[in-house]
């Protein structure tokens, strides 16, 4: 049994929905920036910039792991809409990988 009191009126028990949305937005920003940056650095890696595998791992972790973390945080907080938007970010790696490869061949 939980020590937290139930929400008044039988509603959701999310105490700070704006705070949760701010955290989810910050995580989404990290995923949107770090994924493409890591992938681009992996494509252009040389001996001085680190190995490509390290950069591709960073890109994958940022582009896939951070949206999954954001969805988990939003789910625990009871914010279904934020969780769904976080899961929608999983389409972002397909977009930036395709865009980067199309611009490099052109």
From TrEMBL:
TM spans (from-to): 20-40, 52-76, 82-102
Keywords per UniProt: Membrane, Transmembrane, Transmembrane helix
Identification of the protein by name: Uncharacterized protein
Natural source organism: Nocardiopsis sinuspersici
